[in-house]
């Protein structure tokens, strides 16, 4: 029988019928002593589910504050237990307590609090008894018990504490809550240890839920934003206050992905007048450039902050410090950061520092900028913020570089959060700008009946609605498709399918149809990767769709994001001809004979992504339109059910 705190096969109960009893080691109203607290709210972990029991943890908020007694332990004493540090591994023995059964065959819980000492098993370095449970995960769970079948936890102990003792500087031992009773089999069977929630892993979640409007226990209303100075005590600083905080909705302390937030201040920031004297220097205020979407940087970068200058110091810096560090390429699992941190993910993060340590960011630098120089087409340089200080272990330790949020991967979220009413696109030439331009949806124009993008040609249609695929994200490019509704509607050419000023719909593919062979990609993008201007007239290129059901060039070139079940791989083995920057969203077309033997043009794909333009062994990747047809049909006619082919 599992002894879980949330999956106990009992009927739902109103929390108002429960009370929290404190300062007593006995249960029951008739037992003496103790104080009762009413429950105001129960907060369960969002990612808990009974099929895996991960994150088997909940918080209880009582209606009034606890009043602690002087003296730490004893009858009718009340004292808080210490919390563990984040991601701390405990070894040796620990103590578990509860009022549960004292044997698997009994049916009555204990009246008095029971406790027993058990062994902590290291399941991360070797297989342990807990691996017999199919749901056991040594990253988020602790395995503890006795190989000799001594007393352990039992049914109804779920939710109780697993405690260890930690000796501090004054020589005293303090009890630390390291785990929570979660699941197990039976009570004392030899070789059947119990599973506990690893509280050190969940400490970030606890802090976020206890104080969602606070940063490290500091209220947002107490935070001051200082600009125009490099020293905390400089009286020349201009002070701003936080009006609103935007935290990335997918950020979690347990993995540190999407470790970014936006701050809206209470008034507009004024930049320094005069580029020559005002961009850099004391009392200067100037915006930093943003990176292009999904841009890869290499070489060196600079990180800045007011954090500690060594891991064992206790005082942050008064003056702004900066250090140059090395950017590591982490496309492969052999990267130094993959070896150092099990939560590192190069799709969202940058690895930077030195193999031997000595220079890096430190505690207190989190949230600060990681900056790189970018040479513009005129030969001058722009400073670009490419990352945000996120996490690390210690400060500048060997083989443990710092981890930074990859800002280029987060730019779509940044821009959509700042201007949710606008549509964003990456310009073909982004070397002189922030990498993005934005225009309101109402100013978007769709042109028909012309092969030129020049004004005055063809017919203009305003965009009145656009629908993005709900599962699209720039970190993987799956489902890279959108629909646009225009006004006025398109008017098709009478009796003229092709030629100048003609407008005719393209045929859509059958659901889940599979296409190979020769196709044509079209667009107004660059004609080479180092180009500086998009094409004025429509260009087209004949390319080949590769069979990726077993292996193909795209699987080798884009190992982490290419998915052959929803993407097409097309180009030439030697490169030279393919789509390029600025062609994204354009059609990939093929010819097929209809029932009467006449050739018709089918759109089989949508230009999505690639590396460079027409490089050898690096074909372009296209959204596979046949697999997306059910989504297209449902969005166009939401009240119509699309039957499989």
TrEMBL record:
Keyword Lipoprotein in record: no
Residues of the Peptidase S1 domain: 95-419, 415-637
GO biological process, one term: proteolysis
Segments traversing the membrane: none
UniProtKB keywords: Disulfide bond, Hydrolase, Membrane, Protease, Transmembrane
Superkingdom in the source lineage: Eukaryota
GO MF annotations, alphabetized: serine-type endopeptidase activity
Pfam families: Trypsin
Stated family: Belongs to the peptidase S1 family. CLIP subfamily.
Designated name of the protein: Transmembrane protease serine 11G-like protein
């Amino acid at each position: 029988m599992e002894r879980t705190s949330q999956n106990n096969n009992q009927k739902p109960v109103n929390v108002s019928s429960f009370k929290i009893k404190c300062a007593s080691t006995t249960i029951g109203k008739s037992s003496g002593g103790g104080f009762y607290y009413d429950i105001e709210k129960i907060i369960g972990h969002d990612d808990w589910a009974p099929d895996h029991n991960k994150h088997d943890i909940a918080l209880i908020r009582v209606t009034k504050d606890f009043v602690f007694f002087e003296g730490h332990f004893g009858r009718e004493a009340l004292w808080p237990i210490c919390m563990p540090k984040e991601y701390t591994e405990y070894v040796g023995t620990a103590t578990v307590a509860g009022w549960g059964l004292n044997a698997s065959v009994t049916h009555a819980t204990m009246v008095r609090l029971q406790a027993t000492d058990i062994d902590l098993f290291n399941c991360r370095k070797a297989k342990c008894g807990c691996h017999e449970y199919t749901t056991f995960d040594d990253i988020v769970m602790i395995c503890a018990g006795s190989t000799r079948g001594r007393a352990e936890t039992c049914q109804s102990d779920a939710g109780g504490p697993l405690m260890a003792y930690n000796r501090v500087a004054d020589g005293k031992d303090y009890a630390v809550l390291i785990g929570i009773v979660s699941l197990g089999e039976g009570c004392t069977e030899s070789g059947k240890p119990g599973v506990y929630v690893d509280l050190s892993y969940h400490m970030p979640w606890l802090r976020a839920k206890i104080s969602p409007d606070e940063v490290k226990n500091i209220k947002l209303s107490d935070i001051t934003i200082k600009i125009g100075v490099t020293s905390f005590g400089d009286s020349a600083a201009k002070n701003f206050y936080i009006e609103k905080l935007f935290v990335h909705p997918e950020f979690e302390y347990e993995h540190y992905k999407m470790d970014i937030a936006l701050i809206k201040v209470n008034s507009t920031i004024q930049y320094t007048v005069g580029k020559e004297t005002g961009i850099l220097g004391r009392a200067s205020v100037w915006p930093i450039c943003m990176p292009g979407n999904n841009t890869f940087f290499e070489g060196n970068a600079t990180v800045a902050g007011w954090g500690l200058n060594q891991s064992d110091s206790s005082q942050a810096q008064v003056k702004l410090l900066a250090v140059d560090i090395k950017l590591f390429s982490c496309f492969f699992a052999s990267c130094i950061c993959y070896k150092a941190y099990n939560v590192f993910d190069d799709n969202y993060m940058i690895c930077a520092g030195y193999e031997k340590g000595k220079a890096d960011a430190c505690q207190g630098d989190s949230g600060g900028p990681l900056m790189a120089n970018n040479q513009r087409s005129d030969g001058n340089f722009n400073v670009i913020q490419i990352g945000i200080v996120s996490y690390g272990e210690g400060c500048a330790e060997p083989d443990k570089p710092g981890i930074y949020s990859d800002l280029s991967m987060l730019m779509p979220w940044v821009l959509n959060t700042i201007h949710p009413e606008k549509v964003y696109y990456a310009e073909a030439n982004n070397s002189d700008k922030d990498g993005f331009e934005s225009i309101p949806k109402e100013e978007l124009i769709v042109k028909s009946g012309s092969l030129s993008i020049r004004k005055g040609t063809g017919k203009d249609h305003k965009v009145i609605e656009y629908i993005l695929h709900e599962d699209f994200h720039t970190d993987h490019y799956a489902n890279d498709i959108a629909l646009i509704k225009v006004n006025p509607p398109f008017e098709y050419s009478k009796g003229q399918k092709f030629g100048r000023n003609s407008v005719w719909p393209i045929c859509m593919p059958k659901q889940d149809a599979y296409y190979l062979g020769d196709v044509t990609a079209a667009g107004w993008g660059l004609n080479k990767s180092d180009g500086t201007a998009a094409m004025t007239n429509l260009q087209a290129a004949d390319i080949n769709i590769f069979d990726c059901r077993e292996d193909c060039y795209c699987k080798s070139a884009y190992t982490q994001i290419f998915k052959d079940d929803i993407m097409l791989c097309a180009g030439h083995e030697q490169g030279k001809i393919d789509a390029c920057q600025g062609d994204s969203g354009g059609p990939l077309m093929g010819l097929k004979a209809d029932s009467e033997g006449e050739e018709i043009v089918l759109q089989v794909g949508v230009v999505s992504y690639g590396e460079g333009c027409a490089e050898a062994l690096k074909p372009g990747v296209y959204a596979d339109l046949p697999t997306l047809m059910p989504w297209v049909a449902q969005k166009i006619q939401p009240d119509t059910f699309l039957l499989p082919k």
